[in-house]
Specification:
The complex is a heterodimer of chains A (about 325) and B (about 325). Chain A is an alpha/beta fold and about 325 residues long. In chain A, about 45% of the residues lie in helices and about 15% in strands. Chain A is built from twelve helices and twelve strands. A six-stranded parallel sheet of chain A has the order 2-1-3-4-5-11, with helices on both faces. Chain A has a six-stranded mixed sheet with strand order 7-6-8-9-10-12, sandwiched between helices. Chain B is mainly alpha-helical and about 325 residues long. Chain B has one domain: ABC transporter involved in vitamin B12 uptake, BtuC (Orthogonal Bundle). In chain B, α4 runs antiparallel to α9. Classes of the chains: A alpha/beta (about 325), B mainly alpha (about 325). The interface between A and B is large, with 37 and 37 residues.
Chain lengths: ~325, ~325
């Protein structure tokens, strides 16, 4: 009994004394190191071009997450010029930023350069368009999955109808377009009843997409669905369907970054029936999280490699009205 | 021998008729009223741009900056309306920008005497750069609620004819009137034929050259508005596309010599029809992109080759400024 009482007393005293410790505050041992690891580090950003929703969104999102920790940013805008982009990456390798965030124009051009950058100790994060070289991290959409999901939706909408569909591809040289097409083929292989009446490249151009779709609709007024490869281009596809008076009869599926005007507003207006969104703010946050982890871990560049494929948000009439299905670039930049 | 001489316009017309006949016979669904309208609608904007280029080429110039005039002022209208300005005010600002741009082009070429190819190459970059860096938030400027009603310029139809075709017809009528019925039009031909002779005879060559570029910019802006209305947005990145080559092709293929002074609206129409027929037929056949480019190249080459066989160049026709 005596011992138990002693222990009891000791415990009581400890509890009574505890608030006294809390008054003094407790040092969290890891945050100091984290702050030091981030402060003054340079993150360089090489998109294919600025001035469109995806690249502007990633840029704004990265800055918003990392600037408060004293991370410095450097932007190299090649403005759709692949050579200028390669030069930018080359010069960055000698400038040695801590991280390069790169948006590849194709699979090959930057691949060797990115490998060199990681050898020099620079973390390379590839966004949305990966190169043949897998670097420390890839954050982005799985184009094959997008092609599959869009096509599955179109096939479903076609059930009991003509089973005639059209495909509006992007630019032939773009890997994103070719990957998406692979996804489309994967699904079509399981559905031999579906007939593709047209599969043409519209060069990411809304006017071309509209022209092609108009001609296809004139030839096949009983078309039941269209798989488009980018919502910015498929505004034209949707406009052609609308002008033919076939809104609601022809199912238009596409994909994009989920910016409000380009995605949700278009779904609401009936231009698209499905827009698979690879939500840009989420992608930006994932990149920022990866950068925080890499810088604070101190792991050597190129020794760990992993992928963060974006979980897609299907935008349909059901959720296009919600506050969170889409994002707004001007608000995001504030 | 004289009888066997065809002009380029006639050769292209024959190619067009042949192609049209082949498609009509062998391509199911080609020769229908609906498809004919679609065919025309799809090349209407290209045709309008062809008219603008024709005015400049007739005066022995060339306007590479046309696509910038197509993209930037209409893009500005959409952007300003999106930012809360009224549509009429935005249109006025865009119009002022277009006229200012045309005047600048004209001044460079007529008064500073910079060759038109280089002058417009540079000013086009300037205007596109200005738009990208200062005027637009995004490359693709979206339609907004304030533009309601304006989309009728490029969508819908009047008496079954899609509006872009009507806009092309309207532009054709205006340009044909200008070229054939006004003194200014006659001056443009005179300058294209022989600029020195034109000046000696007292034609105000420099102001007329300025006028050509202002008109071209205005027509380009008009084409841009039709295009934006038609696709509910202005993809300003179109400046980086190869559209300008298509425009030059329509003009040259139609038979308006780059050496100036020859041709008119009919040539633009013929050139536009040929391109339209080819694009439409190949889309129906679902030819691959690369195959389409191949066919386009072969047909164009054939037309140009036929011209140089039938109408060989000599000292009189090979003029300075011929590209």
């Amino acid at each position: 009994m005596n011992t138990i009482m002693k222990w009891g007393l000791a415990l009581g005293l400890t509890i009574a004394a505890a608030p006294a410790f809390a008054d003094k505050g407790l040092n969290e041992p890891f945050q100091e190191q984290f702050r030091k690891a981030l402060a003054g580090k340079v993150v360089a950003y090489v998109p294919v071009a600025m001035n469109f929703d995806l690249t502007e969104g990633w840029w704004a999102g990265l800055k918003r997450e990392l600037e408060p920790y004293g991370v410095k940013f450097e932007l190299r805008d090649p403005n759709w010029n692949t050579n200028a982009g390669a030069q930018a990456v080359t010069s960055l390798i000698s400038e040695k930023p801590a991280v390069i965030v790169v948006h590849n124009p194709d699979v090959q051009t930057y691949a060797k350069l990115l490998m060199r950058a990681e050898k020099e100790g620079i973390y390379v994060i590839q966004i949305n368009m990966g190169s043949a070289y897998r670097s420390t991290a890839f954050v982005g959409a799985n184009w094959i999955e997008i092609g599959e999901k869009d096509t599955e939706a179109v096939v479903k909408a076609c059930a009991g109808k003509s089973n005639k569909i059209a495909i509006v591809q992007g630019a032939l040289s773009a890997a994103a377009s070719a990957y998406t097409l692979k996804g489309v083929e994967n699904v079509l292989a399981q559905h031999p009843e579906i007939k593709v009446v047209s599969s043409q490249a519209a060069d990411w151009d809304a006017a071309k997409a509209k022209a092609i779709t108009q001609t296809v609709l004139k030839q096949n007024p009983d078309l039941c669905g269209i798989v488009g490869f980018w919502d910015g281009m498929d505004i034209g596809t949707g406009a052609a369907v609308k002008e033919a008076g076939l809104t609601g009869k022809v199912f238009v599926a596409t994909s994009g970054g989920g910016e409000r005007k380009g995605a949700c507003d278009q779904v609401k207006s009936g231009a698209f029936d499905l827009d698979m969104s690879y939500d840009v703010p989420t992608q930006a946050a994932q990149m920022a999280g990866t950068i925080k982890w890499l810088l604070s871990s101190g792991v050597r560049a190129g020794t760990v490699k992993g992928s963060e494929y974006t979980t897609l948000i299907p935008i349909t009439k059901a959720n296009a009205d919600s506050q969170i299905a889409c994002w707004n670039l001007s608000d995001f930049k504030k | 021998m004289r009888r066997f001489r065809f002009s380029q316009q006639e050769i292209v017309f024959v190619v067009f008729v042949a192609l049209f006949a082949i498609f009509s016979v062998f391509l199911k669904g080609f020769f229908t009223a609906g498809n004919m309208l679609t065919l025309l609608q799809n090349v209407a904007v290209l045709g309008i741009l062809g008219l603008a280029m024709a005015i400049v080429v007739l005066g022995r110039g060339i306007d590479i900056s046309l696509i910038a005039a197509l993209a930037v002022p209409p893009g500005l209208v959409l952007q300003m309306v999106q930012n809360g300005h009224s549509l009429p005010y935005s249109l006025c600002v865009a119009l002022a920008l277009t006229i200012g741009f045309g005047l600048f082009n004209g001044w460079l070429i007529a008064y500073a005497e910079v060759p038109s190819l280089f002058a417009t190459l540079a000013t086009g970059l300037l205007l596109a750069g200005l738009g990208q860096s200062l005027l637009f938030q995004l490359d693709v400027v979206q339609w907004s609620d304030g533009m309601k009603g304006f989309e009728r310029l490029g969508q819908g139809s009047v008496l079954g004819v899609p509006t872009p075709i009507l806009m092309f017809a309207l532009a054709c009528a205006v340009v044909a009137f200008l070229l054939r019925r006004t003194r200014w039009g006659a001056y443009i031909y005179a300058i294209g034929d022989n600029p020195f002779a034109a000046r000696v005879t007292g034609i105000p060559t420099r102001p007329i050259i300025v006028l050509q570029y202002v008109l071209a910019a205005l027509i380009g802006c008009f084409a841009g508005l039709v295009m934006a209305a038609s696709v509910n947005s202005m993809p300003t990145r179109i400046f980086n596309s190869t559209l300008i080559y298509d425009v030059i092709l329509v003009v040259v293929l139609g038979g308006i010599g780059l050496s100036g002074g020859r041709g008119g609206v009919a040539n633009v129409i013929v050139g536009t029809l040929l391109i339209g027929t080819m694009l439409n037929g190949m889309t129906i056949m679902d030819l691959s992109y690369s195959a389409q480019n191949l066919v386009k190249g072969v047909v164009l080459l054939a037309a140009v080759l036929a011209d140089s066989f039938v109408n060989p160049r000599n000292e009189e026709t090979a003029q300075q400024g011929d590209i």
